[in-house]
Amino acid sequence: MSAxxxxxxxxxxxxxxxxxxxxxxxxxxxxxxxxxxxxVGSSKLGGFKKRWPERLVNVGIxxxxxxxxxxxxxxxxxxxxxxxxxxxLTGRALEQVKADVAYSxxxxxxxxxxxxxxYGELGPTHHSIEDLAWLRPLANLVTIVPxxxxxxxxAIRFAAxxxxxxxxRVSRYPVPxxxxxxxxxxxxxxxxxxxxxxxxxxxxxVMLHKALRAAEVLAESGVSARVVNMVWMNPLxxxxxxxxxxxxxxxxxxxxxxxxxxxxxxxxTLALRRPVPMEMVGFPGFVxxxxxxxxxxxxxxxAAGIAAAARKAISRKG
Length: 318
What we know:
Blueprint: H1 14-28, E1 32-36, H2 46-51, E2 56-58, H3 63-75, E3 79-85, H4 86-91, H5 94-103, E4 109-113, H6 131-135, E5 142-144, H7 149-161, E6 166-170, E7 191-194, E8 199-203, H8 207-220, E9 225-229, E10 232-234, H9 238-244, E11 250-257, H10 262-273, E12 278-283, H11 292-298, H12 303-315
Parallel strand pairs: 1-2, 1-3, 3-4, 4-6, 5-6, 8-9, 8-11, 11-12
Antiparallel strand pairs: 5-10, 7-9
Helix pairs in contact: 1-7, 3-5, 8-12
């Protein structure tokens, strides 16, 4: 099983997989370092700091400087994992992500912690529902959205071995471990989690779990739903998206804005390659303050909400 701590409810915090995997990599390779913005605790890097205090750089609440320091360390031969809340990493430091990391093709690993609405009650300033839309135009920035501790570990290991810029969404929302049929994640390759013929549900991150439950709900009424794990936002598995359209209807589900993220990427692909009825499940705009579960329920990011979107897409088939 992945390097993560299981709770009594059988759920996992993917930040545990992130931190334990990073420690394992650092133990094997002294080039691995961490850079944070006063986020040692929220990144769960206390163990890393205790073992290698000289290999953890805490710049304080200075996210633009943090990304620049990461780029400098990369240029010096290190493998920096730059970790902080995704809302600040991709919002406040977007210019540095663009210029110092992506444009410069620097070997920096950006770890966006607690993305989506992971901070719930802290409200819109801490929600990170725009990050995928902001980063998608950075064509050489590999972007990964893991759904469980195993995929998180796989993403961190991939990033350490890959020569080039990477962004990884690291969720804090408690999730179960999924039954993966693959041995490792490969760049730009999706995983079909459930076969189906009436509609395809394309999801990633936390939403993949809800998409699988939605498929079960649909099956109870005789609807066969394929569920595809879109763990790679960039490179995007275009062929898998086109193949999913063979069901005649597509639904995208993401813990992000429906403007420009996974839904946008899939819509662009289908518009050019294989147009079919499509529905997007995500956040329509700014999200108010509230618990994570309340916000998921309020905006229909639930098994029932996804199933309803699937039925709507199916109803629009020609």
